[in-house]
Design goal:
Blueprint: H1 5-9, E1 12-13, E2 61-64, E3 73-79, E4 84-88, E5 101-104, E6 108-117, E7 127-138, E8 142-144, E9 149-151, E10 154-160, E11 173-175, H2 195-198, H3 221-229, H4 247-250, H5 256-283, H6 290-319, H7 322-345
Antiparallel strand pairs: 1-3, 2-3, 2-6, 3-4, 4-5, 6-7, 7-10, 8-9, 10-11
Length: about 350
């Protein structure tokens, strides 16, 4: 599925999960142009420069490299087309999104947690310092069918400050993904279905006969349909298993098996029609060879198929309201011309100088 213009305009998202890789696809550059002051400012980098799997997502806490305050900020939104991260808790700068600060992905250092460090030389108490990841490694991403998104684990391959020996673990430090807030529980309203109504059994299918080869009783499905419209005038026995007589109405006509069956039936009709044309031409050769007569039959058969296709297209056009729409346009056009003619005939000019009456009308 290609990337659309609306997805480009709404590329800023607050969702942390990667459900697709559409942001890696190229798109026309004219989608970035603003045609009015109401259009949002859209920026994007080249597809080869975009980040495929994001390790800094909304909900994470980071610090900005080069920021003198070294303040811990929370990621609110990300833009996968421009590789920008929107942070809340800091001072908004150029390229802000509301009250959010806009920085590049490469300037963000992921916060791992607070770790205990040994005391300094002039102190005896241990220190607790925030630790950030300087290099982030990942496992192989894979598609999770239950979660309907790509999933991978991220690890801190390098940290600052460097962890002491006591705080190190075997291998790299696994960085957990941010926890999403629970959905607020909605209060029940008059439109909320009750639990007993949801679990109530409103339809009981009929019991299948033990003998599958037994004859089915003759039942007219039209009586069942008419009883729905006027149940008092046309009583109907609900115990009769009428579902088997409505298999055509209740089944999907666009299934692969039915499409293939219709296609095979159409091929059979075309072959039978070709045989008829060939037999008719071979009955009376009219000085032609059998090969020439067969070739003319094939030509007529192909012309007949093309005419059938044109007729079928016209029938479908009429069925979906194309002919009725043309008639409505004709009526509107005629009404518009009639009203314009009436206005011109009823037009009266005020007396004014330099008015000349054409001699042809005298």
């Amino acid at each position: 599925m290609p990337l659309t213009a609306s997805q480009v305009r709404t590329a800023i998202t607050s969702k942390p999960w990667t459900k697709d890789l559409l942001h890696m696809q190229p798109f026309p550059l004219n989608w970035l142009k603003r045609h009015s002051f109401k259009d949002p400012v859209v920026k994007a980098v080249k597809p080869q420069d975009r980040i495929k799997y994001w390790n800094i997502v909304p909900g994470d806490r980071v610090r900005v490299i080069g920021d003198k305050e070294e303040k811990l900020l929370e990621v609110a939104k990300i833009n996968k087309l421009s590789n920008r991260v929107y942070l809340k808790g800091g001072k908004p700068k150029a390229g802000k999104e509301g009250d959010l600060r806009n920085v590049h992905y490469s300037r963000c250092q992921l916060f791992i947690g607070d770790f205990e460090f040994p005391a300094q030389a002039n102190s005896t108490e241990p220190r607790t310092l925030p630790v950030f990841a300087t290099r982030v490694g990942t496992s192989n991403p894979f598609w999770h069918p239950m979660l309907a998104r790509y999933h991978w684990d991220r690890f801190a391959a390098g940290t600052t400050p460097r962890l002491p020996t006591a705080a190190k673990t075997t291998g790299s430090i696994k960085i957990p993904w941010p926890k999403q807030p629970d959905r607020p529980k909605q209060d029940a309203t008059i439109y909320t279905s009750k639990a007993e109504d949801v679990t109530a059994i409103t339809y009981v299918p009929f019991a299948l006969p033990a003998d599958t080869d037994a004859a089915v009783s003759e039942i007219d499905e039209n009586k069942y349909i008419q009883s729905v419209l006027k149940p008092d005038a046309r009583p109907y026995d609900p115990a009769v298993p009428v579902e088997i007589h409505l298999s055509k109405e209740l089944s999907n006509p666009h299934s692969r098996a039915k499409k293939q069956r219709r296609w095979q039936a159409a091929l059979t009709r075309q072959r039978e029609l070709l045989k008829v044309y060939v037999q008719n031409e071979l009955k009376d050769l009219k000085g032609r060879t059998r090969h020439e007569a067969r070739a003319e039959a094939v030509w007529k058969w192909r012309e007949r198929l093309a005419a059938d296709i044109r007729e079928e297209k016209k029938r479908r056009w009429i069925h979906r309201g194309g002919e009725a729409a043309v008639e409505r346009r004709k009526v509107r056009r005629a009404r518009k011309e009639r009203k314009q003619d009436e206005r011109l005939r009823g037009l009266v000019l005020k007396d004014a100088p330099n008015q000349v009456i054409p001699t042809a009308t005298l």
